[in-house]
Amino acid sequence: MKKKGNSISAYVISHLNNISRALLEGEKRPAFLEFLEKKNERQGLYALYGNDGRLYYIGKASDLRKRLDQHLKDKHAQGWANMTLFFLSKKANVAELEGLLVASA
User: How many Cβ atoms sit within 10 Å of the Cβ of residue 4?
Assistant: First the structure.
């Protein structure tokens, strides 16, 4: 019997690609935070990209909105300009999927 491999896409409910960090800082911040707050799926993975488009950081979060807000103030604050968000099902093992994402980066 073949063992099924782990696949990130099997647990991804939705994703947002190439989102500007300005949505967390500018005049559209309230609307973007409200959008994230209304999503039923708050846990997920995220990738932060530098101004040059290169992958800067990959992380996991039980609450993406709160975690991204933290990145505006932590040691990574100046290192990224864009992000990709992956909203995951509640059945997903976020730590395991983060490892798969890092390994594929």
Answer: 7
